[in-house]
Amino acid sequence: MTGKIIGIGNCIPSETIDNLFFNDHIFLDDQGIILKDDNASLTEKLKKITGIEERRYASRDQVTSDLGLIAAKAAIEDSGIDPETLDYIIFAHNFGDVRFGTVQSDMVPSLAARVKHLLKIENNFCVAYDVLFGCPGWIEGVIQANAFIKAGIAKRCLVIGAETLSRVVDIHDRDSMIYADGAGAVVLEYNDQDNSGIQSHLSASYTLKEKDYLFFGKSYNNEACQDTKYIKMEGRKIYEFALVHVPDAMKKCLDESKYSIDQVNKIIIHQANEKMDEAIVERFYKLYGLKMPENIMPMVIQKLGNSSVATIPSLLTMILKGELENHEIQKGDIVLFASVGAGMNINAFVYQF
């Protein structure tokens, strides 16, 4: 008995932001000093390291819960279920609803409650709650949904991952070019008919020394309001942390399943940084004394940027709907999902389609 994905959906915002968008930005270091490199050089370095050429931003009239609702409706329609039969709605995000032009986060009521309301679900025993777990939040939501299903207290769960990171970036910080908006969702259902579904999972939180690798901090513009906080990260520390700990977590998760490394058909990893993700997967295979196979790791960060909790469910939806060239998932395929992010949190699960 395990949770099986029966419906998928995403929301890719329509506003495309290419690297030229940042030409007129004034980028500063953490001391408030203008960076020596011109913006064309900075965006070229960004593309070389992260792979990002474009990213998507939500329209001005949309907030995170709006994107989540679109993805949720698509997943429910794809599953063919009556939404009244959902036992849980789990919404993974990190910053709540932040309206365009404002800096205030709105999380009350929960985003899950807002989506349930907009779906017009009358069932009071459909429980709606949010998960704040950094970029690995959507995977954690799936793990929790699977736990409810295996415990016999749920038969169907909707898990949403959505974020509008464009609303919480410091425009004077070059890292702002990494972040994007988006949403993805799945419907999981109780399955005891075949071997498909979640086979193993793993979660970890590294907080003793690593807690503040991603944090909310002041603008690099010293003249800006000191009370306004923006998303900040210690990029080098995150990179080094991820390369050490994520491959080990992926191996532990795979080893706890009944599958071997040569049976893995795809690895769907959080779209954080192209070079970092490639290095993580290469190290993962090295732990088995193998080289990373070609075409094992689909990437969409080049065009969609880093939309936090939305990257994995959005990517999964694109693959299953045949929207990603040279990548497909067939019935019976084994897929390893993994993510790393603020906390610092790491998680993974092995899934058989």
TrEMBL record:
Pfam families: ACP_syn_III, ACP_syn_III_C. GO terms for biological process: fatty acid biosynthetic process; secondary metabolite biosynthetic process. Residues 254-352 form the Beta-ketoacyl-[acyl-carrier-protein] synthase III C-terminal domain. It comes from the Bacteria. CDD domains: KAS_III. One of its GO terms (molecular function) is 3-oxoacyl-[acyl-carrier-protein] synthase activity. Keywords: Acyltransferase, Transferase. InterPro entries: ACP_syn_III_C (IPR013747), ACP_syn_III_N (IPR013751), Thiolase-like (IPR016039). Residues 129-202 form the Beta-ketoacyl-[acyl-carrier-protein] synthase III N-terminal domain. Gene3D superfamilies: 3.40.47.10. This is 3-oxoacyl-ACP synthase. It comes from Chryseobacterium mucoviscidosis. The lineage of its organism: Bacteria, Pseudomonadati, Bacteroidota, Flavobacteriia, Flavobacteriales.
